[in-house]
Amino acid sequence: MKQDLKLHIYPRSAKANKQGFYPIYVRITLNGKRWEFSTKKFINPKIWDAKNAKIKSTVTEASSINNYLNQIKTHITTNLSASEIEKYYTERVRSRLRQMMNVLSVPADRKDKRN
C-alpha cells in the first residue's frame, strides 16, 4: 500500500508576536491525516523563502534555524515509517517531537502538565 507523506514548513501569520515575527510551523500530512506543531522559532516574514521552506539570509541565526529545520525534515522523511509517524504524532505532537529531537531535556519522572 502506497503511503502519501507530505511535509510543509511555513511561517504562520495568524500567530505573529508583538514584534511582527511569525512562528515557523511544521505540518505533516499522512494519507489525509494532519498533524501540525510549532518549532518555537520566530522569523521576520520578509526573509522567508516559501519555495525552499527556509530563511533566505546570511545571518548566523538564519543558518542555525535552517539547520534545525533540515534536521526535522530528515528525521520525519527518512527515519520514520508511516506507522511510526502516526504513532509519534497522533496524540501529543509537541511532546513527542521534542523527545525525539532532544531539544528539551526533561527528567523522565516529571509529569506532563498538558494531560
Helix content: 25-40%
Strand and helix order: EEEEEHHH
Percentage of β-strand residues: 25-35%
User: What does the average pLDDT come to?
Assistant: 78
Described by strand count, sense and barrel closure, the largest sheet is: 3 strands, antiparallel
Strand order of the largest sheet: 1-2-3
CA radius of gyration: 15 Å
Count of alpha and pi helical runs? 3
Structural class: alpha+beta
DSSP strand count: 5
Counting structural domains, the number is: 1
Question: Which residues form runs of ≥5 with pLDDT under 50?
Answer: none
- Please state the overall shape, judged from the principal axes of the Cα atoms: globular
Distance N to C terminus: 34 Å
Task: Please give a quick description of this structure.
Helices cover 31% and strands 27% of the residues. It is α+β, with helices and mostly antiparallel strands and 115 residues long.
Written overview of the protein:
This protein has 115 residues and is of the alpha+beta class. The chain has one domain. 31% of the residues lie in helices and 27% in strands. The strands form two sheets. It has a three-stranded antiparallel β-sheet with strand order 1-2-3. A two-stranded antiparallel sheet has the order 4-5. It is globular. The mean pLDDT is 78.
